[in-house]
Amino acid sequence: QVQLQESGPGLVKPSQTLSLTCAVSGGSITTGSSGWSWIRQSPAKGLEWMGVIESDGSTYYSPTLKSRTSISRDTSKNQFSLQLSSVTPEDTAVYYCANRKFGSSKLDWGQGTQVTVSS
């Protein structure tokens, strides 16, 4: 059973880089056919898919965030990370990591972590 847990600072200053890590247990981020995504939710935008790193290491990003977003992984720790650069208060949201096996409609979600961008 896959479990995901987000971690990272809850407060980030404008113009800085938001960095979060998703720890994965119960499944390998390098095997199988899975996508490991970052998704955020805010009152203004609702749910917004940010990007994904697939089991083979391929990455894909939302066109609206691509220029500022980087998803990477540490296979030795079975975790993947999000970096969002040049943040503004509009980036304030609850950030989730999630997993979906290809061919399945089921998403496994982390509990989410609130990130506030403020000076």
Portion of residues within helices: under 10%
Low-confidence stretches: none
Overall SS class: mainly beta
- Overall pLDDT: 96
Q: How many helices does DSSP assign?
A: 0
Specify Rg, calculated over alpha carbons.
14 Å
Strand percent estimate: over 45%
Distance between the termini: 39 Å
Q: How many β-strand stretches? A: 11
Tertiary shape: globular
* Largest sheet features: 7 strands, mixed
Taken in chain order, the helices and strands follow as EEEEEEEEEEE
List keywords for this structure.
119 residues, mainly beta, 4-stranded antiparallel beta sheet
Structure in a nutshell:
The chain has 119 residues and is mostly beta strands.
Question: What's the arrangement of secondary structure elements?
Answer:
Layout: E1 3-7, E2 11-12, E3 18-25, E4 34-42, E5 46-54, E6 59-61, E7 69-74, E8 79-84, E9 93-101, E10 108-109, E11 113-117
